[in-house]
Structure formats: structure tokens, C-alpha cells
């Protein structure tokens, strides 16, 4: 864990210096293929430092067993490959928990989403352009602009589609709307308190937008995050302590 029992308050540069070591790339690795590594999104370490959280949609729908393709976690600027396996997937909240081979890595401490208020400062760190220039973590800072339901009914009947109806009928939950811009490679990035480094949410660039913004002709620049409380439930399902 990054933090002892008493919270440590720090400037954002100091916080970034601590948390960036727990941020990893997520993709696939095919040892028998010419292009061995394929980057798909961002993830971060939790619990015992051998478990990784990302968005469920970041993971491939299938793997090529004949080519020995497997889920990979890319660690450090050089993108050292660590093999990973699925542990639990929560499709409703678009979260996935993986477990990596090898030694433990630094891990995030979890905060309390119920204490998050509109206007609170947050930061998130990830890999918005993937490994093109190396896996150098990029940090954005902003505020929680709104705490909003994942789906709205729409203005007219034609705005409703099967996916939106499904979200409206199922047990609703709220997401954080941020005023900082994230990019597709940021899916799965940790959203955290700039002072303490405690995790508050998980950036989501696809699942939430499809639910809230499918009536828009052009995608917005709005960034959303899944609150950390849903991650707590995921860890409990896996028998892990946050």
C-alpha cells in the first residue's frame, strides 16, 4: 500500500511520483507472431500488488490459442511483459480484475466514493497514446463536474435503444463526470485524490459514453469514471481485501 494508517497529504507532483509505479498497460502478447505485443488500455495494481484492475471492455473477447496469445500487463517504461489471467469480470460496471505472474508491484489504496463531492479535485494517470512513445505515464487533473446516472431516458422515444432501455430497467448507478479530457488509451486509468493518492474511480471511455451519449452525432469530450465502491465489491468477490 502507498499510505499508512494516517493519510499523508502531498503536492500533486509528489503524489504522481508515488502512484505512477502502480499504473500499467493492458493488452495481449503473442510470442509466435511478428507483432508480439498489442496495447489495448490502462490498468493499475490493487490489493496484494499482484492483482490488476481495468475496464472489462479493454480485454479481448477471445484469444488465439494456436498462436499462444495471452493477456499481458506491460510494466515500466520498457513495457516488461507480465502474463495475466482473468479473475473476476463485472460487466454491469465494466470492471475486470486480473492476476499477474511474478513478484508484487506497488498498489493503490482505495478511497471512499461516497465522500466525493461535485467540485472535488481529482487526477488520473494512464497511457493515452499507448506505447507509441514508450509507456511514459501521463497525468491529467480536473474536478468532479457532476455525479450523474449512467443513463438518461432521452428527449424523445426514438432516442431509446435496447442498450439504453436495459440500463434504465436495471438497478441504476451513478458515475463521476470529469472536466479533464481523457483519450481512448486512458480506459482503465485510476482516478485518485491529488493529495493522498487514494483511488476514487476508474476512467471509462466507451461503456458509459455508449449508455449516456448514443443520441449524439459526435462524441463529446466529457470524461467519465466508475466509482471505486464498485471495485470494492469486485475485490470481495475475489476474496481480496481492498
Your description of this structure?
With 242 residues, the chain is mostly beta strands. It has helices at residues 12-19, 162-169, 207-212, 229-237; strands at residues 23-29, 37-46, 51-55, 70-75, 80-90, 95-100, 121-126, 138-149, 174-178, 190-192, 199-204, 223-227. The protein has a six-stranded antiparallel β-barrel with strand order 1-2-3-6-5-4. A hairpin with a 4-residue loop joins strand 2 (37-46) and strand 3. The longest helix is centred in the C-terminal third of the chain and has 9 residues, at 229-237. The N and C termini lie close together (10 Å).
* Uncertain ranges: 1-6, 153-161
Strand count: 12
List SSEs in N-to-C order: HEEEEEEEEHEEEHEH
User: What best-fitting shape do the alpha-carbon axes yield?
Assistant: globular
What is Rg? 18 Å
What summary fits the major beta sheet? 6 strands, antiparallel, barrel
| Overall SS class | mainly beta
Provide tags for this entry:
242 residues; mainly beta; six-stranded antiparallel beta barrel; 12 strands
Can you summarize this structure?
The chain has 242 residues and is mainly beta. Helices cover 13% and strands 34% of the residues. The longest helix is centred in the C-terminal third of the chain and has 9 residues, at 229-237.
Amino acid at each position: 500500500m502507498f499510505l499508512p494508517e494516517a493519510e499523508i497529504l502531498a503536492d500533486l507532483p509528489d503524489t504522481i511520483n508515488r502512484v505512477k509505479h502502480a499504473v500499467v498497460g493492458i493488452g495481449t502478447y503473442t510470442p509466435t507472431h511478428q507483432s508480439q505485443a498489442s496495447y489495448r488500455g490502462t490498468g493499475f495494481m490493487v490489493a496484494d500488488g499482484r492483482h490488476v484492475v481495468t475496464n472489462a471492455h479493454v480485454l479481448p473477447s477471445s484469444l488465439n490459442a494456436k498462436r499462444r496469445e495471452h493477456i499481458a500487463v506491460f510494466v515500466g517504461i520498457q513495457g516488461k511483459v507480465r502474463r495475466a489471467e482473468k479473475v473476476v469480470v463485472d460487466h454491469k460496471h465494466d470492471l475486470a480484475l486480473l492476476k499477474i505472474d511474478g513478484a508484487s508491484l506497488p498498489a493503490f489504496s482505495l478511497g471512499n466514493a461516497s465522500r466525493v463531492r461535485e467540485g472535488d479535485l481529482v487526477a488520473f494517470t494512464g497511457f493515452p497514446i499507448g506505447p507509441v512513445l514508450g509507456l511514459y505515464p501521463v497525468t491529467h487533473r480536473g474536478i468532479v463536474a457532476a455525479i450523474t446516472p449512467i443513463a438518461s431516458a432521452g428527449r424523445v422515444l426514438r432516442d431509446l435503444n435496447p442498450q439504453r432501455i436495459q440500463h434504465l430497467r436495471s438497478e441504476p448507478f451513478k458515475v463521476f463526470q470529469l472536466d479533464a479530457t481523457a483519450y481512448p488509451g486512458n480506459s482503465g486509468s485510476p482516478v485518485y485524490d491529488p493529495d493522498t493518492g487514494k483511488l476514487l474511480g476508474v476512467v471509462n471511455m466507451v461503456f458509459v459514453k455508449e449508455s449516456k451519449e448514443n443520441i449524439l452525432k459526435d462524441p463529446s469530450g466529457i470524461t467519465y469514471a466508475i466509482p471505486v465502491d464498485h471495485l470494492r465489491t469486485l475485490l470481495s468477490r475475489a476474496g481480496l481485501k481492498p
